[in-house]
Amino acid sequence: MRKKFLLIALMGISQMAVSAEISVIPGDTVYLNSTNPGKNYNDLAVHSILISTGADETFIVHGMRIDMLSGGQIVLSKSLSAQRLVDETQGLAQMVDHGMGIFLRAQILSEEGFQGLFGRQLSLASADVLSPNEVLMLTRQHFSLDFSPDNIEITVFGADETGKERTLNARVPVAVHGAPIRYEAPLKEAWMMTSLPSIQSHHRLNPPTEYAIDFFKTNGAGKIHDGDELKAENFFGYGADVLAAADGEVVFVIADETQNRAAYLPRDGESDEEAGARIGQYNMRRYAADFARAAAGNVITIKHTEAGATEFSSYGHLKADSVKVKVGDVVRRGQIIAEVGDTGDSAAVHLHFQINDGANAFMSRSLPVKFLDLEETLGGVDPGQYVVKTE
Questions:
Q1: pLDDT above 80: residue 18
Q2: pLDDT value at position 9?
Q3: Which of 100, 103, 198, 262 has its CA 20 to 30 A from that of 206?
Q4: 28 and 130 housed in the same domain
Q5: Which positions ≥6 away from 23 have C-beta within 8 Å?
Q6: Range of the domain at 250
Q7: pTM for the whole thing?
Q8: Is 77 in the same domain as 111?
Q9: 370: confidence class by pLDDT, cuts 50, 70, 90
Q10: Does 7 lie in the same domain as 113?
Q11: Same domain, residue pair 216 and 341
């Protein structure tokens, strides 16, 4: 999932391989997302860029440049200071220090963290001078483009411990995902699809959920529930059948989660800020205890193989006691596998759906999906939003 690039230094007449390197996550291909096909507007996300040192070296980082190339020519550039890299790395270090290392591992798509990527443990650097076995990280780089790049080139400017200037380079291809496997919608009838893969989506800048979609059931006024929010059954989508999106084999299931709805809703006399802080702390405790259960609640992952390709679909926030399959079951496209619910990190009843390139939906790369049987409203050009005049 990563691509690494070694710096080769000339010392006199001999070559010495200096192990300072750039690692890009994901490093095989960055997928281009079309935002307005008629006018060639696109966007893409580079999730993580790591600059690391070997066991016996020091590397001083001066800055970074990210170039978008088309036809071998630089069309767009972005420069970042060394201080920006240090600040972001220290933000990640604080998260790890508070027991949230799972988020770092998800960001680099490695269940074993740095050990899984590099074969050795690295430490997050606290300065632009990288000591042996240290790393600086830049994450969540998003680009909106009016052209279609074919490569991304990353250049790190720096120096070795003697002060001699060194440059690291990395290049990653850009492509449109080929969608080798055919999927149908995991729900019947009309639903509102939200969190589409734009920069506004809370999924977009997380590698495992980049192209995930949320489905909400609404009434004619655009509301998702009627009545007391403490009762999940007052949400219009609650208990709706969830369907397998394609033929496949069930490879992962959580089926025994329930929801503490009161923990997610504001309390009497509580401000929005106080409610947000309390809910955030509640979620952090649950994430630290069991990330998969805290994030997705009841969830099913299905392995699909077609035309030589293998992908995995996942269905999250499923209703308590509704899961109808177990690991090892073979399912057919359109088969009922569970019901829409509220488990996991959201009390708003909905179905979370995503496609990944690995069986672990929390540590593998998210892939774009296009459903074959959905009719897009408004031509699919502008998803819009519900608005209701209140006076």
A1: no
A2: 36
A3: 262
A4: yes
A5: 2, 3, 4, 5, 48, 49, 50, 52, 117, 118, 170
A6: 192-380
A7: 0.91
A8: yes
A9: confident
A10: yes
A11: yes
